[in-house]
TrEMBL record:
This is NADP-dependent oxidoreductase. The lineage of its organism: Bacteria, Bacillati, Actinomycetota, Actinomycetes, Mycobacteriales. Its EC number is 1.-.-.-. Residues 10-308 form the Enoyl reductase (ER) domain. The keyword rRNA processing does not apply. The keyword Coiled coil does not apply. Keywords: Oxidoreductase. It comes from the Bacteria. SMART domains: PKS_ER (SM00829). It is an enzyme of class 1 (oxidoreductase). InterPro entries: ADH-like_N, ER, GroES-like_sf, Lipid_raft_assoc_Zn_ADH, NAD(P)-bd_dom_sf. It comes from Rhodococcus jostii.
Length: 330
């Protein structure tokens, strides 16, 4: 099979097509013929080497991709019937990528618990676009805020945190760019503060004493902790090295721990069907144009999901063949 991979860390142009052995499922696994893979911030982190420790001891190529949609084309007969996974089913899947095992591939083997049926009448790009809402769900469940608590969401143009928080009955304040007001209001934001050095003070002006919690998707860190009340909470999506003090509880989140949380994955699909979550597809590119797909978020201003379509069609006949790496089993 073909995949999009990197041999060395660096800019978007390190991504290129490679040939890898066809994977096959083991007990409790299914093989997915990938039709679409979302380009996520974690993919650019892998590409640039920010996640190099994760692949320590493994040999390249390294294949990005944690969010895929496609068709189950191979199943081992010991799958738990409660998962309702069968050959020919159109699915969306969460990929706990490692080494050469990643979603930017023509085929990927996944635990059956990591996949669920796509939303009703969704295309493959649409289906691949929403699974990163697991990151938002993970944050809200970690914060475990009571009804009508106040949550500040940074980087709110991404949408899923605001949508899920609004659905949970929270008061949602967002920090976003001046041009994103209508967008974040459509996600359910009650109030908006524009990005800038005074954002934390502006939040406290809206909520005297500070908000109950911050979900820091924009990675503002110490620049936003002043907006949190004493004894409040901070949810971070990368390692936070600071100490907010004042009894503030910090949640360092790792969404990979939810890779086989089938009830949560299916719940998010159901929320799409109910109209709570939106499938937001932006640019759709052929898989071989992955470098361009990575240049777009690097340039900033991306609001909707960038999608790669599979299979990989190389622009030339040049091929690179590698020895197989073990497929992680869960």
């Amino acid at each position: 099979m073909k995949a999009i991979a990197l041999e060395t860390y660096g800019g978007p142009d390190v991504l290129h097509p490679v040939d890898l052995p066809d994977p096959h499922p083991g007990p409790g696994q299914v093989r997915v013929q990938v039709h679409a893979a979302a380009v996520a911030p974690v993919d650019t982190m892998l590409r640039t080497g920010l996640l190099a420790e994760m692949n320590a001891g493994l040999h390249p190529p390294f294949v990005p991709g944690m969010e895929v949609a496609g068709v189950v084309d191979e199943v081992i007969d010991d799958i738990d019937p409660a998962l309702a996974v069968e050959a020919g089913q159109k699915i969306v899947g969460f990929v706990d990528n490692l080494g050469a095992h990643g979603g930017y591939s023509d085929y990927v083997v996944l635990p059956a618990a990591s996949v669920t049926r796509i939303p009703e009448e969704a295309s493959a790009p649409e289906a691949a676009s929403f699974i990163n809402s697991m990151t938002a769900l993970n944050a809200l469940e970690a914060l475990h805020l009571p009804f009508v608590a106040t949550l500040l969401v940074t980087g709110a143009a991404g949408g899923y945190l605001a949508q899920l928080a609004h659905h949970a009955g929270l008061r949602v304040i967002t920090i976003a760019g001046p041009g994103d007001d209508d967008l974040v209001r459509s996600f359910g934001a009650d109030q908006i503060v524009h990005r800038g050095p005074d954002a934390a003070r502006e939040v406290v002006a809206l909520v005297p004493g500070g908000v109950d919690a911050v979900a820091d998707a924009a990675l503002l860190g110490d620049d936003i902790v002043g907006a949190i009340r004493d004894g409040g909470q901070l949810a971070t999506f990368r390692h936070y090295h600071g100490d907010p003090g004042r009894g503030i509880q910090v949640h360092g989140l790792n969404v990979r721990q939810r890779a086989t949380d089938h009830p949560a994955i299916t719940h998010l699909r159901d929320l799409v069907n109910e109209g709570v979550l939106t499938m937001r597809v932006g640019t759709v590119l052929p898989a071989a144009e992955a470098p361009e797909a990575h240049r777009l978020p690097d340039a900033g201003g991306v609001r909707d999901r960038i999608i790669l379509e599979f299979p990989v069609h190389e622009p030339s006949d040049e091929r690179t063949t590698h020895e197989p790496l073990a497929v992680p089993r869960h």
